[in-house]
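REQUEST FORM: STRUCTURE PREDICTION
Request ID: SP-0412
Submitted by: Lab K.M.
Chain count: 1
Length (residues): 315
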Amino acid sequence: MDTETVGSQAPATDLSGMYHRSVQWWARQVSAVADDQWDLPTPCSEWSVRDLVNHVVGEDLWTSPLMRGHTIADVGSRLDGDLLGDDPRATAASAATEAQGIVDETLHTHGSVQLSYGEESMDEYVRQLLADHLVHGWDLAVATGRERNLDPDLLSSVAAWFDATEEAYRSGGAIAARGELTGDPQADLLARFGRDADWGPNHAGFARFNAAFGRGDVDAIMACMTEDCVFEATGPAPDGQRHEGAKAVRAVWERLFGSTPDPRFTEEESFVTGNRAVLRWRFDWGGDNPGHVRGIDAMRLRDGKVCEKLSYVKG
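STATUS: Completed
RESULT:
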């Protein structure tokens, strides 16, 4: 992607200019995604790199019909599903260019758009897009190991706008719970959007481990654990059984997923801090006697891999 052709270098003193800069920041991150990085986890816990890019490309493709006065019903389902095709970088570049062009063409009218929650001003809609490109650009940057620092002008602009809209975003389920505020402008904005400014290899490794467990993929689970890993099972009471080393731990997973009818692990809540992680989960099974248990794991990570998993269940 040639980021020089993705919109003009508009001044940052007006909304259109700020929007352009946010899209260009996003475009730089997409253009740098390597061929082997599309399946990497991101700070958006349910999205891989490809999922994240697909989401923002969808927003860019929606911009033109909405800014031209079309409704969601007019567009229908044509922007659903995978939009990236075989060349996601080129698709993202094209969508970004189209979105910036329509904003240049229409924003000066200060008209209205029809969003999922009703009529909204064009100005407010573009501010929402600015925030999404800025924050999702950061998501993509840290997921792929690139620059982490946000443009100070964009940061302050989005923070000021978010002062009046954060509660609506959170009550509508659009963002995760607010993290701890520290007084650092970038870290605080990310925390307000439900991000951890220190997101890194341990977060990514933890996400890969949970995803593999959810699939019941033993090979993928073990690829996310160290050779000297330790697992403490929930039973037998009172302390559970301790399994040490990758070979012993693998045997536990093979028995679990091989002998349990229709096993399904679901992540209910999780967080990572430093080399520690906590996961609240639900385990369902089928067969003649279906049921479930709910529990929690206390984990340690080393260099992005799980080295200790201590499991506890309710009741």
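NOTES: The chain has ten helices and eight strands.
Reviewed by: T.R.
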